[in-house]
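Annex B. Sample input.
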Amino acid sequence: MTRSIAAGLALLALVACGKGAGDKTAAADSLNRDLQLAPAESTMALSDTGMSNAPQPAPAPAAPAPAPAKPKPKPAAPAAPVITSVTIPAGTVVHLASNDSLHSRHDKAGKIITANVTEDVKDAKGNVGIPAGAVVTFKVVALEPAKSKSAKDGTLTLAVQDVSVNGKSIAVSANVDSVQHTLQGQGVTAGGAARVGGGAAAGAIGGKIIGGKTGAIIGGIVGGAAGTAVAVQTADRDVVVAPGAAIVIHLSSDVTVQK
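Annex B, continued. Sample output.
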């Protein structure tokens, strides 16, 4: 009886040991599984709310870089003033070239001639008022030959009438400074022969008088040779202006040209 009780106790102890070992093993397995399932240690600092796993707000988008400043456009150049008229002051010199010819033997006072402006005529600011090519009209006031071989000049007086610019006629007040011309000997004419003195004059009048470089008198009587020499010295010389001759004038009052 005693042996049976001892055996039973030993069996119970063995079962208890086995169960305790099993429980320890199960407990160890459970602990190991819990350790594997535990979240890794977070290095994130706790927020002020103490919720380390709370979603953090997205970072604010970076401000866009400012666009490069565009260069300021250069201010437009002021428009050139529109010139509606140009005033040429008094005293301005104008150069011209004659379009016509004059000859004191054939032409008389009252004849009209024209001349072209050869250089632009400008105001004090450099604006062209009378362009080259403009036409100036003159009236012949006096035209006479030189009265003798020794006379330095004849008579030629021109009066400025107007100037034509772009088809418009503008009255001009101006003085003529010079007119390019030549003096050409007439030879001996009837009037010239009358001035030959003495018997030579009488002989010359009775003969035939012809013009020429020497003013020769033919058909005269004795003393004609001497009379010829005198006639050459006293022969008239014609004033001749050829086409293209230079004419210089200066304005005696302002001239305004409308554009």
